[in-house]
Write a sequence for this structure.
């Protein structure tokens, strides 16, 4: 895999959906809790699968999980789980569907405790601010960090599922808490 392709991080290749995601979303700071919940749902669904698979099913997830409204998702029932198991627009994994509903309830608890999920996330960063790395090659990108280790450990204690440190790190990258755009990437400073 090339480090840079057409002036952007090489991991996104040339697939138009992946390129659009890289250019418009990945690594850009997210402050809106609903968007943070969306990425939590999508990253959790990605466990064991490719991110491109999840991006292709994103609109299916949006429909299935109430436009990523954590309050509505938290109220979903066993009947909803059964219905979603028939939905080809999402990954039909009962454990992941149940985890999404349980994680929504825990997400709301964190909002009540910290005021926002964004504030909770920043509590794992010593400076209270996002990190901008200075990586030149894809091989330098880590799979986890002290921040993702601590956040994942805390979330696991709270009962979150499908959110280990690697998934947590991907979440932090996607939502701009960690900017891992390579030096030379056109999106690095946008």
């Amino acid at each position: 895999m090339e480090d840079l392709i057409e002036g952007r991080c090489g991991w996104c290749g040339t697939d138009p959906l992946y390129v659009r995601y890289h250019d418009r979303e990945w690594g850009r700071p997210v402050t809106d809790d609903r968007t943070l919940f969306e990425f939590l749902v999508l990253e959790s669904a990605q466990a064991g699968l490719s991110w491109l698979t999840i991006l292709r099913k994103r609109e299916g997830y949006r429909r299935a999980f109430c436009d990523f409204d954590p309050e509505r998702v938290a109220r979903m029932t066993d009947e909803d789980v059964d219905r979603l198991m028939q939905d080809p627009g999402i990954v039909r994994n009962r454990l992941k569907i149940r985890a999404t509903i349980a994680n929504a309830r825990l997400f709301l608890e964190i909002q009540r405790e910290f005021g926002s999920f964004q504030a909770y996330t920043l509590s794992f960063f010593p400076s209270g601010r996002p990190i901008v790395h200075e990586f030149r090659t894809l091989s330098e990108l880590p799979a986890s960090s002290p921040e993702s280790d601590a956040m994942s450990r805390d979330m696991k204690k709270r009962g979150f599922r499908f959110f280990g440190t690697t998934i947590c790190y991907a979440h932090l990258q996607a939502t701009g808490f960690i900017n891992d755009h390579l030096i030379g990437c056109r999106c690095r400073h946008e």
